[in-house]
Design a protein that fits this description.
By secondary structure, the chain is α+β, with helices and mostly antiparallel strands. It is built from 15 helices and 15 strands.
Length: 479
């Protein structure tokens, strides 16, 4: 299986700031007298190294640079790499951290107003959490409805106090990094907590989705240097959105449009979308990757990618372009074992299974007999035919023997002769591997009577479910 490019985690994102500016982060800790210490920043789910220095004998480590650190949540990684401590970096970039590793919750950070606010918020939430847990325990031990109602109301009151405190910080400091952090963690409210009808549930979904990104801007680069933004992005595109390619394309285009004025956000999003849909989880989503290539990568907007990365993206897109769901399949002009021409478009069938396989492939040896069994038991009587293609013409002898051994001679068994392959190569036109994205065997595609692709990269069981659905739909339409 092709690995992901992992663009979002490993590509350096260049900060567009003046080199005349500088930063200084001073760490003072009594816990260490030596060892290598790292200054890191959060990026997605990774901690990326910004700088490193050796701890002095008096427990001091100083990180400096003739550049401005992009705003975000940073982390000190102490010698030995076992302990880390997060802090905020924004406009003020002369920061001093006093940290006792036996009590990191009491770490003092000067030069970061956001961190001081965050500590006050953290202490407030922790204190309220203790009270809320007491009310939860009391609720569970309640012996009558009156008692449980009291503790339920107390819990709701405490929860509202936490929300009000958070909202006051967001309201009073709208441009702060802390507000960005709190908005990212904040979840959308449920419209109807006790849905009774399908419409109630639908209204809940629509409201939740409409307000999912409330308070979060895609025009602020600082948000990507937090550990909270990527999980929120993943949840939205993987769980909340309908997984239809058209819906996904519309959403990602809009997000990228919003990020046009934030270069690091734009890179992060385009890299993540490219990785996410390089090898999609659902049939038909390869259209998303092709869209990303045609609208963005092929237009030169991803200039930060190196040559190898661009080559991988381009090759993958060209492998998918001609076999998208709904597209007409390319014609295949191949021959059977006797040399008789049997072009794909000369074969008529209500449904055509296009199967690329190799007689020496272990998985093929298992799948081909299974396909044949369901073909004879069900598919054949419904007008399904199998256009079976040998994927490696050097194995013709093994292929012929396998066809005889497994008694699949009534399939349309064809292959591309070495001479035909050479002619295609010399003409510099796409061969069947590119036309049908054959990067592993078996590769199966289902075509309708007009040779349009209606299913791809599915196993025989999934193909059977798809065909059963089609047949049931056809029955209803004829009634």
């Amino acid at each position: 299986m092709m690995k992901k490019l992992l663009l979002s985690g490993f590509l350096p994102l260049v900060s567009l700031v003046s080199l005349a500016q500088s930063f200084k982060v001073t760490l003072k800790t009594p816990s260490y007298k030596e060892g290598l210490t790292y200054l890191c920043y959060h990026m997605g789910k990774n901690l990326n190294i910004e700088d490193s220095t050796v701890m002095s004998s008096d427990g001091t480590a100083v990180f400096t640079g003739n550049r401005t650190l992009p705003g975000g949540i940073y982390s000190i990684v102490f010698p030995g790499k076992r302990l880390t401590a997060d802090f905020f970096v924004d406009k003020i970039q002369d920061i001093t951290i006093n940290a006792d590793t036996t009590d990191l919750l009491s770490m003092k950070v000067t030069g970061s107003a956001d961190y001081a606010m965050f500590q006050r918020y953290q202490k407030f939430v922790m204190a309220k959490s203790v009270e809320m847990q007491k009310e939860r325990n009391a609720y569970n031990l309640s012996v009558n409805k009156a008692d449980s109602s009291i503790h339920e109301a107390n819990f709701a009151k405490l929860n509202k106090e936490v929300s009000s405190y958070r909202d006051s910080l967001i309201s009073n400091f709208p441009e702060s990094l802390l507000t960005l952090f709190l908005n990212t963690m904040k979840d959308s409210e449920i419209l109807n907590k006790n849905p009774k009808t399908r419409q109630d549930s639908l209204d809940n979904y629509n409201h939740y989705r409409a307000h999912y990104w409330d308070g979060i801007t895609f025009m602020d680069d600082r948000i990507i240097r937090t550990p909270f933004f990527l999980p929120k992005l993943e949840r939205y595109f993987r769980e909340l959105l309908p997984q239809a390619s058209d819906t996904i394309i519309k959403e990602l285009d809009y997000k990228l449009l919003l990020a046009r004025s934030a270069p690091e956000m734009y890179k992060f999003l385009l890299n993540w979308f490219t990785d996410e849909y390089l090898n999609p989880k659902y049939m038909g989503q390869d259209a998303v990757f092709v869209h990303l290539f045609e609208k963005y990568h092929s237009k030169g907007v991803s200039s930060w990618l190196n040559e190898k990365q661009m080559e991988t993206i381009s090759k993958r897109a060209y492998m998918q372009m001609s076999n998208l769901i709904g597209a007409k399949a390319a014609n295949l002009e191949m021959v059977d074992s006797t040399g008789k021409k049997k072009a794909l478009y000369d074969q008529e069938a209500e449904y055509m299974l296009l199967a690329f396989w190799d007689p020496s492939c272990g998985h093929c040896k298992e799948e081909v007999p299974r396909i044949d069994s369901i073909y004879r038991a069900s598919w054949k009587k419904h007008g399904v035919k199998i256009y079976s293609v040998l994927s490696d013409n050097e194995k013709k002898k093994e292929w012929v023997n396998f066809i005889k051994e497994k008694n699949i001679g009534d399939w349309i068994n064809v292959y591309e002769t070495p001479e035909m392959e050479k002619k295609i190569t010399e003409a510099k036109v796409a061969g069947f591997r590119q036309l049908f994205d054959v990067i592993q065997t078996p590769t199966l595609l289902l075509l309708d009577k007009d040779k349009r692709i209606i299913g791809k990269k599915l196993g025989w069981e999934q193909l059977n479910e798809l065909l059963e659905t089609k047949w049931n739909k056809d029955k209803k339409e004829t009634k």
